[in-house]
Inverse folding.
């Protein structure tokens, strides 16, 4: 395990992993079925949405239960723009809608945040949960934009003419969505590693300390929320690209809380964890549905709880967790499940040797 | 005027249902500092138990009593087995545990009873009373009275008994409570059990209207959360008043403001809530939290 950790620090290994991932991302749609491409595209969509959530919740520590509202808003804006007669050249329609899908939700998020960032903790959670709740009846009301409760189906983002013969529509959509997702991830990575990311972390840790350091918690909370809304809107654009359909259901607050769950499952305040979270978000319901379609909710819930019990730090901490458990097993040579996962995640260094000693004592006693 | 009073009473009745669940949320939050998203799911599962008992031939009152006992055991067991290991950890993880429970319990209810809504008999007949031109259903009045009774009993429990005093001590400071010899873990279980009982009261009250189905309380839960936070999370009375306020304002806005109508009326309490919270971030009745540096 130690060699593994050392390897992952090595630059050459990192570049190697990057190249392999890139090759897989490029080749995957060419050899997979339409259905698999659809699922992969959905993972990219929700990865971006959860990434936004992770910035506001994982990094800046502000609970948001309204991310689905921005996802839905982005999807509706995209649906409206690509079907409307815009006075711009047709080849510009898609890029312009992408930009507007980023700007409009971000502006809405900014307005909400200007008011909501005065609140903290659960009051903030409540204000954000209100967004999808208010959004759904509004979407049903403004039928001419949204298609009412039936939703809107759009057929767009077809493979352009120059790709004819070697790219199907689903493959082209996959590539568009994955390119956007990669760009958003690079953006997020630079953001959280830079000045702003450090400011977010100190705001999460202690607002008074942040203030004393000349960092305005209010301003950074508003900023985090706005960025999350922007990511949500872009994810909405991607969602419409992959699914080609949106309805008030897209906004449903269930989607929001499931995204929060997926974020924690993947790993809070972790870029890599966000990807695991998105894979979890898309695949677990599908998987549960394959096992037994009448037990989908039961199995998803059980898997969610099992993951939290086994890896409370999120899937991203899985290698560290395995190393920890392996060290303990090596010490006692017996299989045992950890008694208190949350405590152990906090102090990985100290609990392991201590418990080994305890066990030695026990064995001598026997 | 008669119509107005009718609307207010109907609003109070709906608000009472939100209030019962809001009280459950406040109780859990005071004891363990968590928002329990599974509160609605636990209530639905217990309501299904009442349904099953009733259809097995038990009289309605007995069926509801059985559901109350089941709810208490369910709440206590969930606290002890599933939530306990996460209570001292990262609060985000703990909240996600309750989200997992919410999904899981919904799945259990669906496994046994399916997704089809089922009829549930009302405890208070279907008559309507004529009080000087104001028509009020017995069920609405009954719902309001039940909630008033519940609040009175809770006040009695927390202010007048040793158990209540001990539970308040644990909510206030678990470490000190434990050091003065209180059985903190057992008290936490009792707190969760009581909250679960409040949930099943909401479930049984609302079931004749909404029919019993796994997703029955999803929306009620959101309103209850709004009421709990609007009332200030540490104040049971505040939660109930806020719940009544939400029920009434929703009903009145839907009836009197044309633009809003029936479809947008669910948004009204939330808009009002946002405005109130921005003016008074600690809620209507909450104490201001002073954070130490």
């Amino acid at each position: 395990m130690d060699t593994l950790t050392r390897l992952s620090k090595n630059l050459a290994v990192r570049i190697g992993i990057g190249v392999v991932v890139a090759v897989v991302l490029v080749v995957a749609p060419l050899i997979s079925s339409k259905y698999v491409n659809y699922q992969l595209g959905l993972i990219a969509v929700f990865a971006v949405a959860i990434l936004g959530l992770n910035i506001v919740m994982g990094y800046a520590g502000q609970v948001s239960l309204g991310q689905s509202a921005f996802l839905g808003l982005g999807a509706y804006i995209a649906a409206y723009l690509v079907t409307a007669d815009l006075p711009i050249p047709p080849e510009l329609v898609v890029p312009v809608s992408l930009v507007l899908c980023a700007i409009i939700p971000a502006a809405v998020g900014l307005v909400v945040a200007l008011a909501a960032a005065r609140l903290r903790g659960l009051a903030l959670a409540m204000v954000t949960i209100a967004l999808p709740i208010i959004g759904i009846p509004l979407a049903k009301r403004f039928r001419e934009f949204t298609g009412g409760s039936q939703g809107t189906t759009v057929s767009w983002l077809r493979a352009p003419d120059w790709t004819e013969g070697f790219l199907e529509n689903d493959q082209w959509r996959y590539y568009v969505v994955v390119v956007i997702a990669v760009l958003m991830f690079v953006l997020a990575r630079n953001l959280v590693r830079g000045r702003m990311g450090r400011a977010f972390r100190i705001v999460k840790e202690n607002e008074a300390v942040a203030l004393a350091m000349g960092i305005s918690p209010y301003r950074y909370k508003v900023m985090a929320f706005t960025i999350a809304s922007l990511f949500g809107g872009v994810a909405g654009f991607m969602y419409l690209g992959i699914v080609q359909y949106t309805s008030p259901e897209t906004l449903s607050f269930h989607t929001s809380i499931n995204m929060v769950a997926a974020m924690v499952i993947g790993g809070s305040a972790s870029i890599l964890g966000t990807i695991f979270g998105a894979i979890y978000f898309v695949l677990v319901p599908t998987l549960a549905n394959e096992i037994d379609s009448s037990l989908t909710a039961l199995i998803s819930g059980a898997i969610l709880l099992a993951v939290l019990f086994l890896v409370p730090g999120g899937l991203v901490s899985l290698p560290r967790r395995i190393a920890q458990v392996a060290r303990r097993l090596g010490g006692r040579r017996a299989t045992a499940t950890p008694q208190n996962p949350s405590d152990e995640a906090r102090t990985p260094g100290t609990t392991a040797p201590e418990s080994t000693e305890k066990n030695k004592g026990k064995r001598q006693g026997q | 005027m008669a119509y107005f009073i009718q609307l207010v009473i109907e609003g109070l009745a709906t608000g009472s249902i939100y209030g019962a669940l809001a009280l459950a949320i406040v109780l859990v939050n005071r004891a363990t500092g968590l928002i329990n998203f599974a509160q609605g799911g636990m209530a639905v599962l217990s309501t299904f138990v009442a349904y099953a008992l009733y259809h097995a031939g038990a009289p309605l009152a007995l069926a509801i009593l059985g559901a109350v006992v089941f709810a208490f055991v369910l709440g206590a067991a969930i606290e002890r087995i599933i939530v306990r290991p996460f209570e001292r950890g990262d609060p985000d993880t703990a909240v996600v545990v309750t989200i997992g429970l919410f999904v899981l319990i919904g799945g259990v209810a669906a496994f046994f009873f399916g997704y089809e809504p089922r009829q549930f008999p009302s405890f208070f007949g279907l008559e309507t009373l004529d009080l000087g031109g104001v028509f009020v259903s017995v069920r609405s009045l009954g719902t309001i009275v039940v909630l008033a009774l519940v609040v009175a009993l809770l006040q009695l429990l927390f202010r007048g008994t040793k158990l209540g005093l001990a539970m308040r001590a644990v909510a206030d400071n678990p470490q000190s409570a434990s050091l003065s010899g209180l059985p903190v873990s057992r008290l936490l279980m009792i707190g969760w059990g009581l909250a679960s009982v409040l949930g099943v009261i909401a479930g049984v009250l609302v079931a004749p209207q909404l029919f019993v189905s796994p997703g029955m309380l999803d929306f009620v839960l959101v309103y209850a959360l709004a009421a709990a936070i609007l009332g200030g999370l540490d104040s049971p009375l505040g939660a109930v008043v806020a719940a009544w306020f939400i029920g009434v304002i929703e009903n009145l806005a839907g009836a009197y403001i044309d633009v809003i109508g029936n479809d947008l009326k669910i948004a009204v309490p939330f808009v009002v809530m946002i405005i109130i919270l921005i003016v008074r971030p600690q809620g209507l009745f909450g104490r201001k939290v002073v954070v130490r540096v």
Observations:
- The radius of gyration of chain A is 23 Å.
- Residues 318-365 of chain A form one domain.
